[in-house]
């Protein structure tokens, strides 16, 4: 069964998971907002590093997600949105479990209605550049926590955990 299907059957609470696996996991202390229609989500990570340019986010989420979580290091910028409703709808259609954005999103009311986990720092209606600047499948560090492509990530309203 794919990770996206598993998530509709059971929610994994990060507090319980941390109690069980503690030293195997790292938690992100930065307070991300839960903005998607799915409050609990998990999967293997894919990573992007970009700054105020969402072309890579759009292209990666247009590929089969197979229940993965896209982790985007947008440098913490709230100056432009790295994902909106159309890109999020593409993520849902392509089987992504969720997206963690160290930056801003837009269309937050529409995102709240989608079967997609979304963690972001906030929102801004301003569009980002679309030049394709950035890197995919590289280690990204958010709040001192390293996310590697292929590592498991778990998210819920309590926070974000990643395997070491």
Q: How many helical stretches?
A: 5
From the N-terminal CA to the C-terminal CA, the straight-line distance is 25 Å
Q: How many strands, which pairing sense, and closed or not: the largest β-sheet?
A: 9 strands, mixed
**Strand-residue fraction?**
25-35%
String of helices and strands: HHEEEHEHEHEEEEEE
* Shape call: globular
Q: Provide the helix percentage.
A: 10-25%
Radius of gyration: 14 Å
Contiguous low-pLDDT stretches (5 residues minimum) are: 1-5
Query: What's the total count of β strands?
Result: 11
Mean of the pLDDT scores? Answer: 94
Structural class: alpha/beta
Quick structural summary:
The chain is an alpha/beta fold and 164 residues long. The protein has helices spanning 3-9, 14-21, 55-61, 85-93, 108-111; strands spanning 25-28, 33-34, 41-49, 69-73, 98-105, 117-123, 135-136, 140-142, 145-147, 152-156, 159-163.
Write up this protein.
It is a single chain. The protein is of the alpha/beta class. Helix content is 21%, strand content 32%. It has 5 helices and 11 strands. The protein has helices at residues 3-9, 14-21, 55-61, 85-93, 108-111, and strands at 25-28, 33-34, 41-49, 69-73, 98-105, 117-123, 135-136, 140-142, 145-147, 152-156, 159-163. Strands 1, 2, 3, 4, 5, 6, 7, 10 and 11 form a 9-stranded mixed beta sheet that branches. A two-stranded antiparallel sheet has the order 8-9. A hairpin with a 2-residue loop joins strand 10 and strand 11. The longest helix is centred in the middle third of the chain and has 9 residues, at 85-93. It is globular, with a radius of gyration of 14 Å. The two termini are 25 Å apart.
